[in-house]
Here is the input.
Amino acid sequence: MKTLIRKLAVIAASFTASAAMATVIDFESPDAGGLHEWSTVLSPTQGFDFGQGAFMEIFDTAEGPWTTLGAPHSGHFVVANIGGGSMVMKPVGGGTFTLNDLWIRNWSPNDDGFPGSGIAGYRNGVAVGVVQFRITAGWEQIVTNFADVDMVILAPAAGQAFQLDDVTVNAPVPEPTSVVLMGAGLLGLAAVRRARKR
Here is the structure.
């Protein structure tokens, strides 16, 4: 029994550690939907949905017809709210996460846009952090460090269109009920295994 408890503790510790690892969402992943297109609607990628607010598209700005937008912050692809409007970011399947930072610039690389853009982190519908900034022509790092949020809203000033790249998050932390269900399942498997040994 003590061995079983030790194994479960190791599994729980590794599960918790993996949930806290930082990930950079760079929109280069095949699940983003743009790897073989110059422009397409953004699909949920790397565990997050970015398209619940504005109409978000993924663009290959390193080659093809969109090179006039300038180079991405990294890789080939950026995400843009070409129609303007706010972007809503949520983890696929729920849970909370930490938004560390992101890189943003104006849709037009020759325009410094308007002051007054902002990004807010929410937990259960309540804002837990807000950062104000100006979307400029060059790539700017926006540091947020919003911890334990379930939704982030990026609201550009005056409906300004923007490009987004390299969003750093800590992986979504599962809802407590998911952890309880996983623990119950592991205990059940251990009980079945123990019963078979007898």
Q: What stands out?
A: The two ends are 13 Å apart (CA to CA). Confidence is low (pLDDT under 50) at residues 14-19.
